[in-house]
Known about the structure:
Layout: H1 23-32, H2 34-53, H3 61-70, H4 72-86, H5 94-110, H6 116-141, H7 145-164, H8 173-180, E1 189-190, E2 193-194, H9 195-221, H10 229-252, H11 259-277, H12 279-289, H13 291-296, H14 301-327, H15 338-348, H16 360-379, H17 384-409
Antiparallel strand pairs: 1-2
Amino acid sequence: xxxxxxxxxxxxxxxxxxxxxxxxxxxxxxxxxxxxxxxxxxxxxxxxxxxxxxxxxxxxxxxxxxxxxxxxxxxxxxxxxxxxxxxxxxxxxxxxxxxxxxxxxxxxxxxxxxxxxxxxxxxxxxxxxxxxxxxxxxxxxxxxxxxxxxxxxxxxxxxxxxxxxxxxxxxxxxxxxxxxxxxxxxxxxxxxxxxxxxxxxxxxxxxxxxxxxxxxxxxxxxxxxxxxxxxxxxxxxxxxxxxxxxxxxxxxxxxxxxxxxxxxxxxxxxxxxxxxxxxxxxxxxxxxxxxxxxxxxxxxxxxxxxxxxxxxxxxxxxxxxxxxxxxxxxxxxxxxxxxxxxxxxxxxxxxxxxxxxxxxxxxxxxxxxxxxxxxxxxxxxxxxxxxxxxxxxxxxxxxxxxxxxxxxxx
Length: 410
């Protein structure tokens, strides 16, 4: 199985290799890509619904900033979880790993006098070690990832309780600003809008449009399949409008651009490139799509599996830093259900249960769907128990949609 930036796209209709197409071919293309466009439409519908139900409170500027800050851990963990699931595995330990590493980070800062920036680096390094530990058992011993990470969930939760015990607080402001702070208003304000946030939004829009146009030109130049122009243009216009509107809301918020948004955006760009444009990413897709064929093709499956879990440990370390920073303290109970949030975000975002199919951007959309549900229901003062029930129903519906879509395609 080969993988590329067009991995999940079906072949275009034979009558229009240029991808410019008529309305009939566009309809067929949208039908074939129902998963991709369905999750985007679902996010829009959920946002509009809760905007109405909350009397416009959902899209208050400060609420948008809070939405990003509160769900940063899901966004970070979902990136790694997509790679794990696409390869045909699962990781149940990330919540416990977040609690363990977050506790160690807080202890290094508050009790051992380690500068917070060095403590962050050491914590991410500890995440690599944890990932290597679990990857060894999965890749080289051959224990199923479900069993290894279930054991890891118990092991690292126990270590978190042993090392952290009670709450570890008194963390420095610089560390807490990782999740709670915003970029300084270095460019001043345009009316009541933060200038730096506006500049970041313009750069993001220009970068997205330029990258998409270059990618499409490259496909057409090499006579490769490309989506119909109407679908391409419509998707690009909607993305530009969404980024522009979010930029406007963040520029109006009390702090401007959250620091953690820059961290998450950097990770999304990096891992989108890794999954779409590197040998490592293609090997992950190949293993998830057809493991025996990947092995016969020369893919070093043990090494790839090992690196997948090392990478998951690294991202769990980043999520631990973000979570501890957000709370301003470390507790042994941190990270409860984080693994379920990350898995749900991946599945809602279109990652196939059976592996082989999934995108980082899809998981990000899935994470935002979960985040909007949480925030919208909280604004409406819905009981937390019912919030969990709603999220469970959404997860079941997303997986059922994926399975039904596959059957229809066959």
